[in-house]
């Protein structure tokens, strides 16, 4: 059991401010995923929690205890890295046992812990193998095993699956979810670029952007109720389309006159005085469908991509109009070059003013509470800061090639 509290946490490298004003409470047993554009500071935040980076400002508490100046080994955390960084001359069991041996655990304790981790990760048949005789997925499971043997309160994962091929990634993702389910009281924080990992593993996703937190919420809450255009376009793939226009009629349902002459009804309230307000309607590609009636969008299909279960239609890719993508279920041959009329349910549409969702303009508290999922599909894995490759180590194919004597 471990809860974490970050208060006004900041990170700068000299004059470069990477993160600021990070306030975040993480409950014991939660699976938290950090996402955000490349360079937004996800790994830096994780490494500050691990103690591998100094915190420039603010406070990190674990279980109410200030951790800013506590060394990584005393924080009760373990970290799994993208480069699983195993010692090539050690067996799977010895790789997993390494930190325990350093910590002076007895032979019996080491044996019990590695047996248990091997069983949890289905590595039992491989315990006496060297890493070179394992697949990439198995190697990453050993790295996770190294975390498990230490039985940390908090597991940190830095893009653990990004070195794996697509099929292994799916399999390992599912294993992580199962692992978390088997350790409901362990807190897990996970950095990824992968939308599917974020959506399927997280109890809550933290979207980082521009050095701060853009939004924190359950995966489907971010999908259905993004606070702003950035989150709206970051969560979901392909990204949400934005159609510019002006408010024409206000009320519980807003009528928007779209640039180009079409109109759309959006089931988001506006009030007297909002008439004429410049807005963007947000419509997810998967919410669009063909219509014979009144469309919210009409255009000539520039390009199609048939993915089997869905077909992507691209509009305005080489024109002056806003590019639009629609995702239609099934196979739609022969649409390229055709004029298509598309609509969407008013309840599926979003409405933004100056980048912010109008849903939130009177404060998020005025929204009916979002129903969190009850059966948490959480999952995670582990490793320790002690497993971090040292400066000077080279990592090739996930194996540490130490420059100096082995630790
Ligand atoms: N030692 C350093 N000195 C100066 N700037 C640094 C240092 N380490 C990281 N940064 C900068 O901090 C920012 C955040 O880096 P970080 O690796 O945390 O981003 P990220 O969101 O994890 O990115 P990615 O998704 O690409 O892995 C980047 O702009 C990076 O250039």
UniProtKB/TrEMBL annotation:
Residues 363-407 are annotated as: Disordered. Keywords: ATP-binding, Cell inner membrane, Cell membrane, Membrane, Nucleotide-binding, Transport. InterPro entries: AAA+_ATPase, ABC_transporter-like_ATP-bd, ABC_transporter-like_CS, ABC_transpr_MalK-like, ABC_transpr_MalK/UgpC-like, Mo/tungstate-bd_C_term_dom, NA-bd_OB-fold, OB_MalK-like. SUPFAM superfamilies: MOP-like, P-loop containing nucleoside triphosphate hydrolases. GO terms for cellular component: ATP-binding cassette (ABC) transporter complex, substrate-binding subunit-containing; maltose transport complex. It holds the Pfam family ABC_tran. PROSITE patterns: ABC_TRANSPORTER_1, ABC_TRANSPORTER_2. GO terms for molecular function: ABC-type maltose transporter activity; ATP binding; ATP hydrolysis activity. Residues 390-407 have a biased composition (Basic and acidic residues). Belongs to the ABC transporter superfamily. This is Maltose ABC transporter ATP-binding protein /trehalose ABC transporter ATP-binding protein /sucrose ABC transporter ATP-binding protein. The lineage of its organism: Bacteria, Pseudomonadati, Pseudomonadota, Alphaproteobacteria, Rhodobacterales. The gene is ugpC.
């Amino acid at each position: 059991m471990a809860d974490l509290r970050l208060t006004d946490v900041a990170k700068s490298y000299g004059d470069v401010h990477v993160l600021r004003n990070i306030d975040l409470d993480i409950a014991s047993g939660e699976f938290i995923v950090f996402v955000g554009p490349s360079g937004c500071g996800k790994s830096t935040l994780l490494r500050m929690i691990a103690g591998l980076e100094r915190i420039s400002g603010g406070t990190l508490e674990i279980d109410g205890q200030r951790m800013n100046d506590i060394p990584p080994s005393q924080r009760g955390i373990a970290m799994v890295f993208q480069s699983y960084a195993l010692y090539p001359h050690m067996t799977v069991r010895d790789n997993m046992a390494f930190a325990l041996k350093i910590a002076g655990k007895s032979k019996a304790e080491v044996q019990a812990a590695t047996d248990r981790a091997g069983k949890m990760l289905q590595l039992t048949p491989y315990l006496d193998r060297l890493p070179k005789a394992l697949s990439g997925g198995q190697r990453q499971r050993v790295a996770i095993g190294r975390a498990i043997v230490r039985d940390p309160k908090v597991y940190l994962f830095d893009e653990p699956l990004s070195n794996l091929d697509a099929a292994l990634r799916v399999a390992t993702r599912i294993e992580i979810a199962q692992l978390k389910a088997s350790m409901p009281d362990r807190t897990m924080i996970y950095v990824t670029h992968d939308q599917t990992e974020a959506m399927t593993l997280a109890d809550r996703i933290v979207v980082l952007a521009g050095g701060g937190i853009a939004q924190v919420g359950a995966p489907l809450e971010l999908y259905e109720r993004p606070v702003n255009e950035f989150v709206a376009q970051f969560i979901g793939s392909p990204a949400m389309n934005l159609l510019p226009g002006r408010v024409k009629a206000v009320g519980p349902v807003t009528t928007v006159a779209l640039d180009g002459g079409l109109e759309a009804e959006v089931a988001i309230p506006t009030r007297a005085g909002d008439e004429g307000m410049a807005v963007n309607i947000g419509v997810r590609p998967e919410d669009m469908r063909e219509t014979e009636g009144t469309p919210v969008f009409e255009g000539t299909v520039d390009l199609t991509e048939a993915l089997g279960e869905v077909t992507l239609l691209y509009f305005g890719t080489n024109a002056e109009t806003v590019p639009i993508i629609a995702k239609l279920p099934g196979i739609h041959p022969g649409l390229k070059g055709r004029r298509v009329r598309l609509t969407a349910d008013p309840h599926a549409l979003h409405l933004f003013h100056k980048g912010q969702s109008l849903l939130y303009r009177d404060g998020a508290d005025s929204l009916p509470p979002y129903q969190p999922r009850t059966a948490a599909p959480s999952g995670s894995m582990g490793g320790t800061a002690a497993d971090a490759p040292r400066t000077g180590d080279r990592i090739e194919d996930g194996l540490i090639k130490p420059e100096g004597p082995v630790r």
